[in-house]
Structure formats: C-alpha cells, structure tokens
Amino acid sequence: MFLMDRDLKVFVASLILLTLVAVSAVIYTGRHIYVVRESLPPPTVTPLNAYVTGGKIYLELYFNSTLPIQPLGGEVQLPQLGENMTFSGGMLNAPFNVSFPLSPLTPPELEVTGYLRGELNGSQIYVTFSGTVPVQLVISVSLVNFSYSEGITDMIIRVDSPVNLSLTDLVNFTLVNSNLSYAVARQYTPVPVNLSLSYGVHYVDLKLSYNESGQVYVSSISPGVYYEEGEIISVLHYPVGNMTRSFSLYLLETV
C-alpha cells in the first residue's frame, strides 16, 4: 500500500512537471517581435575652405550622408560680401565647389550659410548648413609666349591675382637653346616695367632689350626650340598693406 502511494506521488509529480514543460514550450514558441531602432546620424553639409583664383572665389563644400540621398542643388550665401549663388547637382560623400565673382573686399575668413536640396526615395529633403572658412589667395604670374629678334625679346605674361598689384621690374633673364649648349643673350641690369593691374586675370605684353640691359651673343637665331627664364618683381596691394614678391618666369618655346 505504501509502495502504491509512493508510485502515485511520483506519477503525479512527473505529470505536473511535464505539464509545466509543455506550457513553457507553448509560451516560448509564441512569436515575440522586437523592433531594434538604430540611431543614424543626420545628413550634413560642411564648408571646408575657400580659395581665390582665376578671377573667382571657389567655395569647397562636403555633403556627408549615410542615406542614399541624390543631391539636386541648393543655395549658398556669403553675408560679408552680400553674394548669393544657386547651384545644381552636388556630390554625395565627396567635396564639390561653388564659385562666386571675385571681390576686392574678400576677407581672410568667410562666413557661409545655405542649404542643399536632395531626393530620397522620391521625397525631397533639405539640409541647411553654416560655418566659417579661411580664404586662400592663389596668385600666379607666368610666361606664356615669347619671340626673339635682334637682341630683343617680346613676351606675353599671364597675371592672375585676387588683389591689385604692380609689376615693377624684369630681372635675371637668360635666353639659351633647348639643350643649353650655348647662350643667346643674358640680362645683367633690371628693366623697369611700372605697370599697375587691377585684381583678376590679365595678359600683358612686355619687351626686354638684352642690348640695353645685358649681353647679346646671337642677334638673329635660327628656327628651333629655345628656353627663356627670369623673374618679375611685383608689389601686391593688400587691404592691410603692400607686399613685394618675385615670380619666376620660364618657358620652352619654338621660335
């Protein structure tokens, strides 16, 4: 009798345990959907820098987005200069440029505001931006063409400057043949230029007489390739003062 009671208790306990396991299995197999929300950074447009060259102000922007947004264009303002420029297109996760007319009052740093318009899954979005960027002044003076006859060189110089400047002197010029085996003419004393130019891009005709400023070894040269080099002294007229600078000029030319 005692053994039967014990067997019954074991049976009942086993039945209860199996029932609990079954209920647990049912609860476990019930589908519970958890939505995990990941925080994505918003798209941004960052003004990187600005530089002045070719008679224009170029502003470099960077559009950063983890979403596949197609940039369609936008608008940029330069409040200090009172300039406002719309642009089309743009680049995603890459720098792109927007250009403005050159102003002689361009400060060393520019305030930038604006917005970029884009498209995502058929919907338009707008990303606003603002910031301050340093301005790099790119100044270049280069020799683009020359000819020589009877000890005189006629040259064309390209001047690209974001500030007004004065060309003062030609110095240290030498004309040689292409393989440098002999010299045609050499300059020893400066040749005054005394030419003032406004900001922007200019092409200037200048004449250098080796007869008056140096030594002529060959008056008339045969057709061929020749190399001329020298320097031009310039005074840059910045708003805060003047700066004297020398630009190297050189060119390999067929004459």
Polypeptide structure, described:
With 255 residues, the protein is mostly beta strands. The chain has 2 domains: 44-137, Sandwich (Immunoglobulin-like); 140-254, Sandwich (Immunoglobulin-like), CATH 2.60.40. Helices cover 13% and strands 61% of the residues. It contains 2 helices and 16 strands. The chain has helices at 2-29, 210-213; strands at residues 44-53, 56-64, 70-78, 83-88, 95-101, 109-120, 123-137, 140-149, 152-161, 164-177, 183-187, 191-197, 200-209, 214-216, 225-238, 241-254. The longest helix has 28 residues, at 2-29. The radius of gyration is 38 Å and the shape is elongated. The model is unreliable at 21-36 (pLDDT under 50).
Radius of gyration: 38 Å
Helix content: 10-25%
Regions with pLDDT < 50 over 5+ consecutive residues? 21-36
Q: Number of helix segments? A: 2
Mean pLDDT score, rounded?
86
Residue fraction in strands: over 45%
Structural class: mainly beta
Instruction: Categorize the overall geometry.
Output: elongated
Domain module count: 2
Count of strand segments = 16
- Kindly identify the CATH topology of the largest domain: Immunoglobulin-like
Major β-sheet annotation: 7 strands, mixed
Give, in order, the helices and strands: HEEEEEEEEEEEEEHEEE
Distance between the termini: 130 Å
Question: What is the strand arrangement across the widest sheet?
Answer: 4-3-6-7-1-2-5
What CATH architecture of the largest domain would you give?
Sandwich
CATH class wording of the largest domain: Mainly Beta
